Amino acid sequence: MFTNQKQLLELSINGESYELAAACQETLLEVLRNRLGLTGTKEGCGTGECGSCTVLLEGEPVLACLLLAVDCENKRIETIEGQSLEGIMTPVQEAFLEKGAVQCGFCTPGMVMASTALLKRNPDPGREDIMESLEGHLCRCTGYNKIMESVQHAAKSYPEKK
Amino acid sequence: MYLPRFMIERPESPEEAATLLKVRKNSHLVAGGTELFPRMKYGLCSPEIIISLKGSRVSAPQITPEGMLVLDAKMSLTAVNASPEIVEKAPLLAMAAGRVATREIRNMGTLGGNLCQETRCLYFNQKHTFQFREPCFKRGGEACYFIPKGNRCWAVFMSDLAPALFCLDASVNIVGSGGVRQIEIHELYTHDPLKPISLKPDEIITKIIIPKNEGPSGSGFAKFTMRGGMEFAGVNVGVFVETENDLRTCKEAKVAVGAVSGGPQRASAVEAFLKNKGLTDDVIHAASREIPENLKIVPHHGYSKGYLTECLKSQAKTALTDATNAIIGAT
Questions:
Q1: Looking at the DSSP assignment, which residues form a beta bridge with residue B258?
Q2: How far apart are CA B316 and CA B255, in angstroms?
């Protein structure tokens, strides 16, 4: 029954176009990490519980571990690698550094992507909004307080740095 | 974790999808995939063919000349939560959609998918490589790890949108290889943990229809979880209250409870209790005490029956208070 059905894909990741042949069952996360070497996006649970594989699909945060690569054709994908421009970090990344919101760093790519999407959607989020956006992200090191602080800090510095 | 191998079919229309589901053996429909793919990764099901509705066009919510709200089942939960038509005509559904899981899941999951999810159990939704290897009822076996002497499956149906649609008296449009039919939302659920949805294998939900509501009304939705959106509901309650023109006397209350048994249930005791009563704090408090009457409550995911019963009372109070405040606030 199983023919190893592969499909030729053209993925647009961080503004660059990648062409590859992917099997139907390959998730976007596997393609990013194993095929394209974009290992910034992490695999935590693999079943949509921890949020560490969050990437932006058409500007909205989604879980790359539950998204088939073949479903992402002709869609704009953004990962953590595309955030800083020529070594200059985004306000969100800088705020994470400044406020000490990174410890082991495994959840950070997902957190940064979700916070970036939040600040694009709502440049002046309240505490509740930040909690709502980050509720799907597990962090076992920081206790979340510093992450909350850094998103609030990034929101303050967002317009002038942009 | 990796997905097992499968092939993808992309039907152009629901009719084609229904035909494919009938013709192709061992096929499974997928819309958002947030519920099916984890199960496939755990090895709980391995369809050879995935019939994907992703990428097909999603129509915007429509309001018919009779005032009914018609929703596409493929709408994402974020869209349901944010759609101005739904917020205006069926705020309860928008509220419930906003409480499902996390933002990432809501961006992927769909309205129809949430209604058609599988029942869940602590001993079922996990990998079975080193523990609980003997199949339980849900995996085609003859054992239950949760209540071994129960001699049946005790899995729980955890959709958040189903109780909301129960309160709104919604109906669903179903396309099958035999044609189109429309059923009431409560007919969709069998309350059998092994087969919670009454759809035939070749049928698909295409539309959700919410009837028009006249007169002053308010709605509230409350959900209890230990870890916010990170886990499925321990218990959820949807409330829809219609009042007389004085905005105080309850004309009709609809209360539905989910996540405590094999299917969503209407809390008939509270509905009868609230009828023609003034919606004061005391009445709401007394009503919320009544809610476990006539309801089947199954312990699940570490919550005991007693704990869930108390939880249900407090969540019902929150939802009823929200609904009452919404009516008064609307003036």
A1: B236
A2: 9
- Decide if B260 contacts B296 (C-beta within 8 A): yes
Residue limits of CATH 3.30.465.10 in chain B: 62-116+164-210
Determine the pLDDT at residue B208: 97
For chain A, strand residue ranges (E) read 6-13, 16-23, 54-57, 60-63, 76-78
B317 touches B288 (CB < 8 A): yes
- What are φ and ψ of residue B12, in 5° steps? -85, -30
Of A25, A27, A138, the CB nearest to B6: A25
Least CB–CB distance from A51: residue in B1, B5, B102: B102
Among A1, A46, A132, the residue with its CB nearest the CB of B41 is A46
Other Cβ atoms within 10 Å of B313 Cβ, number: 18
Q: Which of A17-21, B53-57, B116-120 has the lowest mean pLDDT?
A: B53-57
Element (H, E) at A143: none
Interface A-B, measured as beta-carbon pairs within 8 A, has a size of: 87
Amino acid, res. A65: C
Q: What are phi and psi of B236, to 5 degrees?
A: -140, 145
pLDDT score recorded for residue B215: 86
User: Model confidence over B290-308: pLDDT tens digits?
Assistant: 999 889 999 999 999 999 9
Nearest Cα of chain B lies from the Cα of A28 at a distance, in angstroms, of 12
> By CA distance, what is A62's nearest residue in B?
B104
Q: What is the ipTM of this complex?
A: 0.94
Token pair, residue A98, equals: 């400044």
Please check whether the domain covering B217-329 is classified as CATH 3.20.20.330.
Answer: no
Domains of chain A, first to last? 6-78 (3.10.20.30), 91-161 (1.10.150.120)
pLDDT digits (tens, 9 = 90+) for A69-126: 999 998 999 999 999 988 899 999 999 999 999 999 999 999 999 999 999 999 999 9
What span, in angstroms and rounded, lies between the C-alpha atoms of B315 and B322? 11
B246 close to B279: Cβ distance less than 8 angstroms: no
Fold of B62-116+164-210: 3.30.465
CB B28: neighbour CB atoms within 10 A? 19
Q: Distance (Å, rounded) from C-alpha B171 to C-alpha B50?
A: 27
| Length of chain B measured in residues | 331
